[in-house]
TrEMBL record:
A molecular-function term among this protein's GO annotations: ATP binding
Descriptive protein name: Protein kinase domain-containing protein
Classification via InterPro entries: Kinase-like_dom_sf, Peptidase_S1_PA, PknG_rubred, Prot_kinase_dom
SUPFAM superfamilies given in the database record: Protein kinase-like (PK-like), Trypsin-like serine proteases
Source organism superkingdom: Bacteria
Membrane-spanning segments: none
Compositionally biased intervals (Basic and acidic residues): 568-581
Gene source species: Streptomyces violaceusniger
Length: 803
């Protein structure tokens, strides 16, 4: 196996003899596995064929591919060691019991090693065509997958992505040769993504998560657990200090701070001895964040936890109770957790100084250590080596806390530069968000989703924060930076979706427009049924981004309904059809209507079978053998007898001549806005203003009672105003639900009369979006019964100079 990649067997841990190939009884390769002890193999549950039983009883063949002359061994799922993938995606691990023992020296060295970012690893599997094995190299890439159970593996090259035959393969740390996880899955971008941008990632389940799902595995695992026993919570009580629990979850959820020289990612908290609620919240957060303590099971503690109090899985790499410990003892705990090594000097402090330590560490009881100030100095070393630190003190007046606040205080110039950088990024995010709004995108439906306006407000607050010159500002700025990135990425994704959807949406709109023109040919009763379907399709197509599948179904329903005649109508063609050649509807979607009683080609309802003709009454003189042509001539003679042709114009009714009023007579002398009121709309305010109140008449001008923004619903255009250097306003003639309607003259077309529509409330963003969408639709329509838009211009508001 190793020879195929130029890697000798001796270069891997234990010669790689723990690597297992799993075949079906028919000899097909199913996947890979890891030998544990002498009688057990670890693999993914989905590798074992499903035989319909709760626990598969299928026998498979296990082969130790790196052991010379090893024979296949039959194996089955071990009792109590089957954890299939759950509904939330977690799990997917299993242990196989071998039919006969194997030499224990071939077993794998499982190790609890934190899967920090950028750790080089390799893995060997058995893809199709390479039954003898194939190696791939990658680097660990952070928490992913269901509940963040998995760890991403970025391939060293595009070819180094796992494929079928790698599931269950051990993931080996390149530096220590320890097995730190097991391959479980992969991800590939859709084929429509350009090849140069296409993403392919492999995933592994870390050893600690495997132990959580299968506790029996711990007997084969080396390395200390990530959480000291005194800090483990039984998770039997509820969260009492919810605010503190949410603060901890936010800090743990945030990605490590990188690229900020001179700024350390350190947070200090004080939990006094009698503050049991806060201490339990801390212990609970540590337990839920540890992979081995909270990686699987029924997760009642997670589902019952208050909103925002559950940290991501794997967000704590090491939690230490440092009470009565020296800095050397704590350094040894850190060095062993990372398996740090240094040439020459093997003391714990030297091992830490010689390596990067990109861990998230929680140290509890710093001021209760043997030498608190020395321990704080060691924590400064860890922070400088790349660690994120949460330092917990028990006394708010301790000298260790004062030293920590002084050591970790960032330089004022660096914080100011960070704030200036964030201000620039907020401006860019605002521009992208504004672009999405201009293109009609609706704001996120999440009530707690931030936008650019909230970012500006929070940035102003940060500049005047009382803790601006303390180390605590770092966590606030890092959290704010995450919010800025989220808003910008959301806007970018929205624009990307809009661009991708535009061709399909435009096609559906044209299809809808073409069938909308047929509404004029329908009877009033038919239109009453069709208009709701049309409105539903218009509403869905107006949403940005658009729900394309639902919009396509809505258009299909409208098109099919336009083609469907009302109940009881007849077709004159043969077999109950209209005599036209059967045709397919111009539709997109699942195809013609397949409901019983509908044509599979055109979607129309067939007519009921015509009743058998009744025998002619006696004495009619019509013989059964009379030809069809003779009968038709007789019918035409009967019809002709009912009509008398008179000279042209004789007997016609004279209609009175109606004089149309002058258009100028329609101009309102004293236009008043509608008395039902309007939405304020200023920065999203939904208060109704300008409506009658307590028997008083409606106000055309005033102030919003909620946001205190002024409103003015009087017409913005006055007689004589020249709009767009082309249209001279004559006056206001009426109003609709959202806008004033003005009569004007086109000065460039011999004073041709035109109608102009403008908003009643220019501050209402929802009304503005509706007007823009209405303009888009009406410009696509061309029908005698629909008003046609001939131009669109903007005009400065004389009151605010805004456009």
């Amino acid at each position: 196996m190793g020879a195929e990649m130029g890697i000798t067997a001796d270069a891997t841990s234990n010669g790689g003899t723990w690597r297992v190939r799993i075949r079906s009884s028919a000899g097909d390769v199913l996947g890979a596995g890891i030998l544990l002890g002498s009688e057990t193999v670890l693999t993914c549950a989905h590798v074992i064929p499903d035989d319909g039983l709760p626990v598969p009883a299928t026998e498979v063949l296990v082969e130790l591919v790196e052991v010379h002359e090893a024979r296949p061994v039959p194996a089955r799922v071990a009792d109590g060691c089957w954890v299939p993938q759950r509904s939330d995606g977690c799990g997917d691990v299993a242990l196989l019991r071998l039919g006969r023992p194997q030499p224990a020296e071939h077993a794998a060295p499982l190790y609890r090693l934190p899967p920090v970012l950028g750790r080089p690893v390799w893995m060997g599997g058995f893809p199709k065509g390479l039954d003898n094995g194939h190696y791939l190299r990658a680097k660990t890439a952070g928490r992913v997958g269901p509940r963040a159970e998995w760890v991403g593996l970025d391939p060293k090259s595009p070819r180094d992505v796992v494929r079928k035959g790698f599931s269950g393969a051990g993931v080996e740390d390149e530096a220590t040769r320890y097995v730190i996880g097991m391959v479980v899955s992969r991800y590939d971008d859709p084929v429509d993504v350009p090849s140069a941008e296409r993403l392919s990632v492999s995933y592994m389940i870390p050893v600690e998560t495997i132990v959580r799902h299968l506790p029996v595995v711990h007997r084969w695992v080396r390395g200390d657990p990530g959480v000291d026993r005194p800090l483990v919570s039984p998770l039997t009580t509820g969260v009492q200090d919810i605010g503190f629990a949410q603060r901890l979850a936010v800090w743990l959820r945030r990605e490590p701070l990188t690229g900020r020289p001179g700024i350390t990612d350190v947070e200090t908290v004080v939990i006094e001895d009698d503050d049991h609620a806060r201490y339990e919240a801390l212990s609970r957060a540590i337990t839920l964040a540890d992979r081995e303590l909270s990686g699987g099971g029924p997760d009642e503690a997670v589902s019952a936890a208050p909103h925002g109090t559950v940290p991501p899985l794997g967000s704590v790499d090491l939690a230490i109770d440092v009470t009565k410990r020296t800095d050397t003892e704590v350094a040894l705990r850190v060095a062993d957790r990372m398996d740090l090594r240094s040439p020459g000097d093997t003391s714990p402090l030297s091992r830490v100084r010689a390596n990067a330590v990109p861990l998230t560490i929680v140290a509890v009881g710093v001021d209760r250590a043997r030498d608190p100030e020395a321990l704080v100095g060691f924590m400064k070393l860890l922070a400088d080596r790349g660690s994120r630190l949460l330092l917990v003190f028990r006394d708010p007046h301790s000298s260790g806390l004062r030293l920590a606040e002084r050591l970790f205080r960032p330089e004022a110039a660096r914080i100011d530069a960070w704030l200036d950088e964030l201000a620039g990024r907020v401006a860019l995010a605002a521009d992208r968000e504004h672009e999405t709004a201009e293109r009609g995108a609706r704001r996120s439906s999440l009530s707690d989703a931030e936008d650019a306006t909230a970012l500006r407000i929070n940035l102003t607050r940060l500049r005047s924060d009382p803790e601006l010159r303390s180390h605590r500002i770092v966590a606030k700025l890092a959290a704010f930076e995450h919010s800025v990135r989220t808003v910008a990425e959301r806007a970018e994704e929205t624009l990307r979706v809009i661009d991708a959807q535009q061709p399909a949406v435009q096609e559906l709109k044209w299809q809808l427009v073409s069938y909308t023109a047929m509404l004029g040919t329908k009877a009033e009763s038919e239109r009453a049924e069709l208009i709701p379907l049309h409105r539903a399709a218009v509403r869905l197509l107006a949403e940005v981004p658009c729900d394309l599948p639902e919009a396509r179904r809505a258009v299909d329903r409208f098109v099919a309904a336009v083609h469907t005649p009302p109940e009881g109508s007849r077709h004159d063609g043969p077999d109950g059809w209209d005599g036209l050649r059967p045709h397919r509807l111009p539709r997109r979607g699942p195809g013609p209507d397949q409901r019983p009683g509908f044509c599979s080609e055109c979607g129309r309802r067939p007519l009921p079978a015509a009743p058998d003709p009744a025998p002619p009454p006696a004495g009619t003189g019509v013989l059964a053998s009379e030809s069809t042509a003779t009968t038709a001539r007789a019918r035409r003679r009967d019809v002709a007898r009912k009509f008398t042709v008179r000279p042209a114009g004789e007997g016609l009714l004279d209609l009175p001549r109606v004089e149309l009023p002058s258009l100028r007579d329609l101009v309102m002398d004293d236009p008043h806005p509608p008395s039902r009121g309007q939405t304020c709309g200023w920065e999203g305010c939904d208060e109704i203003v300008g409506a009658p109140y307590a028997g008083q008449s409606a106000l055309s001008r005033g102030y919003c009672p909620r946001c205190r923004h002024p409103f003015d619903f009087t017409p913005r255009l006055s007689p004589g105003d020249l709009l767009g250097d082309q249209y001279r306003v004559i006056g206001c003639v009426g109003y609709g639900g959202l806008g004033w309607v003005y009569l004007a003259e086109d000065t460039q077309l011999d004073d041709q009369p035109v109608a102009i529509k403008g908003l009643i409330n220019n501050e209402d963003e929802a009304a503005l979006r509706t007007a823009v969408e209405e303009r888009r639709y009406l410009t696509m329509l061309d029908h005698p019964g629909i008003v046609r838009i001939i131009n669109y211009v903007t005009q400065p508001d004389p009151a605010t100079t805004a456009r």
